[in-house]
Every structure is written in C-alpha cells, then in structure tokens.
Amino acid sequence: MKTNVTAPIGGHAKGAGSDALPDRFLHRAKKGITREIVEEISREKNEPAWMREFRLKSYEEFVRLPVPTWGPDLSGLDFQALTYYQRTEERKYKSWDEVPADIKDTFEKIGVPQAERAFLAGVIGQYESEGFYQKLRPKWEEQGVIFCDTDTAVEKYPEMVKKYFMTDCIKTKEHKLAALHGAVWSGGTFLYVPKGVHIDMPLQTYFRMNARASGQFEHTLIIVDEGASVQYIEGCTAPLYHNSSLHAAVVEIFVMKGARSRYTTIQNWSKDVYNLNTKRAIVEEDGIQEWVGGSLGSGVTMLYPCSILKGRGARAEHLNIAVAGPGQHKDTGAKVMHLAPYTTSNIISKSISFGGGISTYRGLLKIVKGAKGSVSHVQCDALMPDNISVSNTIPYIKVNEDDVTLGHEAKVGRISEEQVFYLMSRGLTEQEAINLVVQGFMEPIAKSLPLEYAVELNRLIAMEMEGSLG
Amino acid sequence: MSTLTIKNLHVSLAGPANGGAGKAILNGIDLVVPKGATCVLMGPNGSGKSTLGNTILAHPAITITKGKITFGKHVLSKMKTDEIARAGVLIALQHPQAVSGVSVTNLLTIAMRKFAAKQKNFKMAHFREDIKTTAKALKMDSEFLTRSINEGFSGGEKKKMEILQLALLPAKCVIIDEIDSGLDIDALKLVAREISKLRKRGVSVLLITHYNRILRWIKADRVHIMHKGKIIKSGTSALAQTIEKNGYSSYITA
User: Which of A4, A166, A200, A355 has the fewest CB within 10 Å, making it most exposed?
Assistant: First the structure.
C-alpha cells in the first residue's frame, strides 16, 4: 500500500488510511439518495427557496437520466450505498490557529499552511462536504476579488450565483452525474475577479474526503471579468477505504472579453474512488482559458475539461497528464467547441500506463460553419513501460468549416532497455533511470506548474510507479 | 586509481526471446589497462570491440559465460551498471540514447549528487559552472545544455555530449567507443584535447577506434588488435601506424 493518502503538495508518503480520522460529524445524512435527503441537505444549509427548488428539479433529472455507458464501466457504482452529505464543523475559520487540531493536522501533513504563507494569494480548505477555512490576502479583497466557498456565495452573492450556477455553462439535464451534482452539491469555490484585475499569485483550494462510502460534490464557479487574469489551483485527496466513494465535481468558468484564466488541478484520490467530473469554460472574445491537469490515484476517472470558444479570437490550452497503474482506468481528454472565427485550441495529452493500467484519451473537437481561420492542434503521447498495460486514443473531430488548420499527432513510447542502460552508465540506479525517463516525458506539463507542484507531481508519480516495473 | 583487468572473458548476446542460447561474441579476452595508461583497441567491423566496452559496463543484453573483469578491488563482472559507474568506470557510448525532456544538465546534476555523496567540499553551484566551462571548451552551443539530451542531435553533437559527461563526472577509468566516427577534424581535435586532460588527471583510458587518426593527438601506451572476439596482436603505438598503412588483413589471415 502506498501513495494514497498524500495530497498535491508537501505530502508525506504515508501508509494508506493511517491518517484517517475518527468520525466527528455534526451532521450526516442517511445513506442513499431520495427527495427527502435532497431536502434535508438544503435545510441543513439554511438555503434560500430558489436553491432548494433548483436541487429538487435536478433530483428529478437524476432519476430520469440513465447511467452513462459510453465510457468506462460504472456498474460497480451504487448510488444508494453512498452518503451524500456530511458536515463536521459548525463554522468557518479565518485564522489557521482556530482550526481544530485533528483537521489542522491532516492539512498540515499536506503542506497547506506553508504553501499559503509562501506563494499563494488565498486558500480555501474543504473537509468532507463543507469548506472550513478561507483566507484571501487583503490586497485582493480591497480590489473587489471574491474568493469563498460556494455555499457562502449562495448566501452573500445570490444574484451572481443565480446568474451563473448551472445555467449557461453546464446544465443539469446533460447527464446523470451533472443532475446528481445539482441535487446534492456542497462546498467548492466561488471566485470572482473584477474587470482589469490581475492576480499575480495563484489561489488554491484543498479538498479532502475522509469518510468512507461517501460522495464529494463540490461546485467551483469562476468568473473572470473583462481583461482580468487569475490562476486557480485545486488539490484533492482522500485516504484509502474499501467501499467505493464518488467524487462528482462540477467546475464552471466564465472567461470574459480579453480575460485570462488558468485552472490547475492535481488529483490524487485513493484507488476506490470513482472520480467523475464535469468541467467547462465559456471563453468570450480574445479570452484565454488554460487547463492544466494531473490525474493520479482513483479507480475509475472520467474527466474531459471542455472549452467553448464563443468569442472571436478566443483561445484554449489543454494540458493533461494521466497516470494509470494496476487496477486503474483513466478515461480523460479534452473537448473544444470552436464557435467563432479565429479561435485557437492546443491540446497536449500525456498518459502513462503501467502494471496493467488502462488509459484512454477521449477527445471531441468541433468547429462550426463560420468559425473561419480557426486553428487546432491535438497531441497525444502515451508512455507504456511494459506489455500488459493499455493505451487508447479516441479522438472525435467534427469540422463544418473549410477555412481551418487542424493537426493531430499520436505517439506511443516505451522505456527502452538501451535508455535505462544509458542513464545507469552515468551512475543512476535502475529505478532512478526509469523515473528520469518518466519525468522527462512529463516535462511539458511540469514546466507549466508552479515549481512546488512540479516537484510534487514528479515525486507522486515516481511513488506510484515504484516497484511496478522491471 | 586502479588497474582494469580482463581475464579470459567469454560473453554471448542474449538469445532469442524464448531464452535460447545466445550468440558467442567474445571468446577469451585477456586485457590489462594499467592505472593511468591509455590503451587502444582496434579491429575491423564486427570484431567485438563495442561488445567488450558494453560488457565492462554490464549491458543487460550481454551475458558473461566465463572469465572475470576487475577494477582494483571491484569485481565489475559481478556488479550492476550503476555500481560500476559509481566505482569510477565510465563509458562514452558509440550510440548514446535520446531521452526526451531530460537535458544533460539535469542528468549530470542528478548523477553528480550520487557521486558527491562520497566527495568532500562538493558544491553544486561550482559544478554547474564547470558544465558551462567544459561545454565552451568543446565549442558546444549553450542551448545543448538545456535541450533534451541527444534528441535531434547530429552525430558530432552526440559525441561531444558523451565527452562532456566523462570530463565532468569523477572518472577513474574511461572507455571511449568510436568517438572519432562522425566527427570532423576540428571537433576531433577538441575531443582529443579533453581526453588528454583526462589522461593528465591520471584517468586510465580504453580507446576503441577504427582509425589511427585520433592517435595523432592522443599518445597511446599500448595498442591491441581484436578479431572474432579475440585479441590477435598487441604492441606499441607503432602497431597502429602499421595498420593504417597495411590494413588489418595481414594479421587476420596470419
């Protein structure tokens, strides 16, 4: 057992489950999902009527819609065996010192306070279903930046939430998991950057799922107003249990005219987690959306960040690395819709499959009639150090405009005996040599991460792969 | 510094995937590279020269069926490639591999951290400066220090990259495999100058080559001719000149 409990930064290699905490819930909903449970969640949160109505409508969609069957096998996922809501803390803390010792411990192990001090503009911590700690540097608060958990936003900024929450970007009727999310969502991040404000340090949220057989459904809503820019990072982790848990997050990003947004996530869930997310950005004229993702851990992952290039000259950059080890299935990719002229997308997807792991790149690229002068490039690189693992590439491309430039490249690489010999002949051990080849493979992703994350990503992948090769 | 000693060495290449018997390549090699000496190994194509170099570094495709290789107190024939390297026996490969996303600076700093564990007063900042200085001496553009190693490099650039690494890591004995092929005369001079610097530091050298050309700048203590996996003739540097003039045939048919 290894690697399952660490989180994106500063984590320690701990035995799986060893830092799991005893249950300490103030409120925990009954198992399963019913109309009553959805109502109970809303009541627990003291939500306004409009949000309760929204949840109930979503629940109806959830009941109506079938489980998706076009991707990995989800038949092991029993929606009635999960707990959908649990709250541990009565209030939110603004000072790290106030946070209760056991929760503080968990987050200190993954390096939260150090990171906040060192290089972050703001931090939110979420434990189970609710955010418990949030802080934004005063400099940004003064400029009108809003950075809080999404429940707080419902209470404090209802007009904005009503306007953007699962309305234009991701709709609950799209698929069963989006509908489920709409019904039971809790926590997540609300970020608003006013016109022309450039936040030059990243903002970060840490999510920690600690209880077994539970679901985590955080909702992240980011609005980057005209000409503004921001970099937001999410890190996710959970200890190892043997009951399947579900992480079904939704991320909605609005990139206004001339704005720039970078959303980075490193997910390292334990291997019994179904990690099924829906993430999408709508990019207006001359806006830029960048997605940087590292997907480690979890059993089944389905993740295809989507960019809707709505305004002329809008641009999307997708960079993703997926690591699939024994018993893991990574179904990841990117979706880009070019809806306006002179829009650009650049997709780099890298995967490492080892020890029988399966990784699939699933892409959708659509260029509509009239989106003339659009450019798209897709590059899929797979690294497979053995003969028992699987790598698939399923790019789906639909183009209805003639005046476009398209490129698609797919490569499968192996770690050759000669390469390992070469590096060993410089004094590196076999494991170090393999790790270095893997690191080199991921270099394009690592160099777009803040240094601390790049180092941690390399370390996590090395730990995942250790002992699985050779 | 120590002496490299090869005694009655027999090796075969790994057989077919089913584990069948491999092909015998070396058939009883006896060779000594005394400490600080420079020995040249010559011979026609396919005589087993590169296999000998790779065997010393424990290449995974090669099996030693008989005999022994030692370097001072180290029994190289029982060690792994990385242990041999860390014992100070390094190789400049004839066909070095490309590693995407890994620069020579990356590789050298990682490697040096392993060597430096044994060294006193080691300073990584100084080492990084040394990398730049040595690259300059080899007239290598600084971009080669940050690009993916050997990826898209010309033959000559790869050779310089190999010598750069040998010059910077704490070598005691170096095996240099056909460094002269693919190098123009100017590059060859620069490479020979780095090899001479190694000699001056007391490093022993086993130089594998087809041609006499490089010996214009490097003084050889011994020259050995190899054919069909055996040393068939040994002599002084004069032997290399005779071969340059008459070819290998007189020795091979003899």
Answer: A200
Q: How far is CA A453 from CA A262, A264, A446, in A?
A: 15, 10, 8
Chain A residues near residue B171 by CB distance under 8 angstroms: none
Strand ranges (DSSP E) for A30-162?
86-87, 122-127, 130-136, 146-149
Write down the number of H helices and E strands in chain A: 11, 25
Paired residues of A78 in beta bridges: none
User: B113-147 burial, b for 16+ CB within 10 Å, e for fewer?
Assistant: ebbbeeeeeeeeeebeeebeebbeebebeeebbeb
3-state secondary structure A289-315: EEEEEEEEECCEEEECCEEEECCCCCE
Q: Name which of A413, A422, A444 is nearest B97 (Cβ-Cβ).
A: A422
Among B117, B116, B114, B160, residue whose Cα is nearest residue B138: B160
User: H or E element: which one contains B174?
Assistant: strand B173-177
Cβ of B90 within 8 Å of Cβ of A426? The answer is yes
Of B57, B84, B114, the CB nearest to A428: B114
Give chain A positions within 8 Å (CB) of B110. 428, 432, 436
Asked if the C-beta of A91 comes within 8 angstroms of chain B's C-beta atoms, the answer is no
- Per-residue model confidence as pLDDT tens digits over B221-233: 999 999 999 999 9
pTM: 0.79
Task: Report yes or no: A151 and A55 within 8 Å, Cβ to Cβ.
Answer: no
- Nearest-CA distance B227 → chain A (Å): 25
**Would the CB atoms of B107 and A440 count as touching at under 8 Å?**
no
Distance of CA A72 to the CA centre of its chain: 18
Q: Is residue A3 scored above 50 in pLDDT?
A: no
Q: What is the CATH number of the domain that holds B232?
A: 3.40.50.300
Q: Helix (H, G, I), strand (E, B), or coil: what is residue A280?
A: strand
Tell me how far apart the alpha carbons of residues A121 and A189 are, in angstroms, rounded to a whole number.
14
Q: Give the range of the structural domain holding residue B245, as residue numbers without chain letter.
A: 4-96+171-253
Cα B70–Cα B72–Cα B75 angle in degrees, nearest 5 = 35
Q: Name A167's Cβ contacts closer than 8 Å, sequence gap at least 6.
A: none
Walk across the sheet containing B4-13 and list its strands: B23-33, B4-13, B62-71, B74-75
For A114, the token pair is 């150090």
Contacts of B82 in chain A (CB under 8 A): 424-425, 427-430, 432-433
Among the partner-chain residues A425, A427, A436, the one whose CB lies closest to the CB of B102 is: A436
Q: How far apart are CA A130 and CA A20, in angstroms?
A: 17
Q: Give the C-alpha separation, A224 to A252, whole Å.
A: 11
pLDDT, tens digit, for every residue of A22-44? 455 667 777 889 999 999 999 98
